[in-house]
Amino acid sequence: MSEHTSPDHAQLMEQILYEVKRVVVGQDRFLERVMVAMLAQGHLLVEGVPGLAKTLTVKTLAGAVQGRFKRIQFTPDLVPADLVGTRIYNQKTGEFATALGPVFANLLLADEINRAPAKVQSALLEVMQERQVTIAGETHQVPEPFLVMATQNPIETEGTYPLPEAQVDRFMMKVLVDYPTDEEEYVIVERVTGPRLEVQPVATTAQLADLQRQCRDVYVDPSLVQYAVRLVSATRTPERHGLKDMARLITYGASPRATIGLVEGARALALLRGRSYALPEDMVDLVPDVLRHRVVLSYEGLSEGLDGDALVARIMKTVLPPAKPLAPERKAA
Length: 333
Description:
Blueprint: H1 7-23, H2 28-40, E1 44-47, H3 54-64, E2 69-73, H4 80-84, E3 85-90, E4 95-100, E5 107-111, H5 118-130, E6 132-135, E7 138-141, E8 147-152, H6 165-168, E9 173-176, H7 182-193, H8 205-216, H9 222-236, E10 250-252, H10 256-272, H11 280-291, E11 296-297, H12 299-303, H13 308-318
Parallel strand pairs: 1-8, 1-9, 2-5, 5-8
Antiparallel strand pairs: 3-4, 6-7, 10-11
Helix pairs in contact: 1-3, 2-10, 8-10, 9-10, 10-11, 11-13
InterPro entries: ATPase_AAA-3, CbbQ/NirQ/NorQ/GpvN, ChlI/MoxR_AAA_lid, P-loop_NTPase
Protein name: MoxR-like ATPase
């Protein structure tokens, strides 16, 4: 493979991003993470207050790649059949027919996932892991590509069911979305109150699947994989990495899914940045997003007012990335 991605792939990603940014103002970091998740075939957990264009971003992206977009508003009275589908009896024919649920989409937005009970959350998380649904003994594959973006509202805890740690681990990244700047908000108001902008399809789901295959070919140096392993290991046994005082603050560290997420994420970010090889900065940029929701704090850690981000930041100061930038020539070796 050449040092840089092929002009066709680079141009296609540029067109997709341009089309989304024509509609969505700001949120560059969030949009970059959505693209990384899509290329790396991971899922996103997004935390942010309402009105920050989370739904608009995913809907616009689906329109740009001509994918099917579905949005599910999670509520306490939801049942698994509302998500995955069910069998319906046809009185005329006397037979049962399968009605597939809204999870059969390319981009699925699970709004306020923590408002639904555990049974419904489990049904969605099973689809995310297996990419298939079984209804009455029949297995149905969800379409490819398939990305789930689940949102959580950080300011409302009344009537919510927090996701268990084992289920949160299924999400490749947890992204925090913040308010726009004053300048961005001015442009948002102008766009929303001005003439309606229609999303132009610039790619197909087949081309997106091709980009995902290209992402798998991005070169990751063994020293970078070792860096990911050491970062994740430091969340489990901090004392082995010179962080003895942190052991009392963590109950459980990250699973091997975190290491895989760091490597796959670095590949996707390198591809987005027009390279066929990953650099340390690609992985470093994603470490907080991949690890923040996987570090379970102890009572001591919580009582000191710490969170996952604070502990990940401490680990990153001690566990350093490979010193030298990785040259593409290393691939030949």
